[in-house]
Amino acid sequence: MHSSLQRLNSVFALATSVLLCLLAIIDTMSTPRRNPTGSVAIKSLETVSGRAIWHMDRRTQDYIVTSFDIQANFTDLFRWNTKQVFVSLVAEYQDAKNQSNSVVIWDRILRTPSSAYVDLQDEQNKYGFREVSKSFGGIDTTRFTLKWNVMPKVGQLHYGNEFASSALKIPSKVVEVPASSAEGGAASSPKKVKQKVRQMYY
């Protein structure tokens, strides 16, 4: 005869096994079958000297201001077990020490299939694109990737990339403007003018 404790242990082991199998089935059925469709166009990059208004670190530092378009349809990521989909545009670059860095510059939470189509025109950074060292000097290029993350009601998270740009050159803060010349005289050589410090509302 088995004791009550042994019987309880057997029931608990069986229930745990059934629950794990059920969770595995739910997770398999919740895996996205098709990737979303869409595109991202990076229209402009501008490196400016800025000072954050709402961030605790308000020292003057480099910021990259980006303008971009996004047209993407994430409807295929919504299934019966989908709670929400998190979408983000991430800037990736290597710093002067060849260490990889990722900065989220825009994101959105999609809660229903009706909100799963993203159509943005001339959108700018939602979050500040800045470097830990305070300067993008010595950093030549950056790439942009549109990422998605499916958050299910039950099961593990699912990740994917919808779009990855080619390497884009990071522009310099210093711009050249032609110096004024006297009437009838030869034009003087261009001079370099540093940009003014902007107030960044991040």
Automatic annotation (TrEMBL):
It is found in: Endoplasmic reticulum membrane. GO terms for biological process: protein targeting to ER; signal peptide processing. Residues 191-202 have a biased composition (Basic residues). The keyword Endoplasmic reticulum applies. GO terms for cellular component: signal peptidase complex. It is a single-pass type II membrane protein. The keyword Nucleotide-binding does not apply. InterPro entries: SPC3. This is Signal peptidase subunit 3. It comes from Pseudozyma flocculosa PF-1.
